[in-house]
Design brief:
The chain is built from nine helices and four strands. With 263 residues, the protein is an alpha/beta fold. Helix 2 links the parallel strand 1 and strand 2. The longest helix has 18 residues. The radius of gyration is 19 Å and the shape is globular.
Amino acid sequence: MLDASKYYLILPDQLGAGLGKSTKPSDGLRAKFPHYDYSDMVRASQQLLLAQGLQVNHIHLFIGASMGCMEGFMWGESNPSDFDAMLLLSCLPVEVASRNRMVRKIMVDDIRLDPGWNDGNYTQQPYGLRAALGHLLVVGSVPTFWQKEYPTAALADKYVNQYIEENMKTTDANDFMYQYDASRNFDASKELGKITAKVLLINPQEDFWNPAELGIAEQEIKKVKNGKFALLPFSDQSRGHYTFFQAAVWQKHLAEFMEGLKH
């Protein structure tokens, strides 16, 4: 459906994300790096990358997952005419509070309260980063999948050790803190009525970050003029918050959504 021979696809590396070559604290400024938030990230993608860099002033379909989903709501509100449609996966357009905020604070504090962090001027990654990565591992988990993959203590221990060690090699503590702190003032709920693009929000049933049982998505999407919400039921392909990586689970919804854009 997203055929590069038919569509011009843009996949940006987010400001501060640390997943590619984007500008981030570990480039040199460390804790002196500006404390960006989601609005800065949207502005970097919209104005600097698209408008100035690529000279693109309109997008047929915006796709954003997790943080990208939250930024999609913000972008759709600030510049409604930029999109025809938006596919948003695994997020809620409300303030990051309750358990979601608590976990983010815990992970940031894991690092910030470690003496080895040294106000961001560490010579080696602080030990608190290991704890933060451990918390992140747990919140992204799916008990049924893990029970199938790691049914013994030995297999569970092996996986945890492998996950922590591999991610310690590729993760910077300052980058990590900045990424999760960037959501500190997010709240797109008050201006959802400004979005004019067609919006399809898809959340998985078992998302730790955005619990389906709260019923928030169903209520908030009503504020979007052309908004629709789909809840993915639990299945053997469920991966918690990261179910958005399993395209086979939600591609039928995308196909129907894109077909509707033709009319």
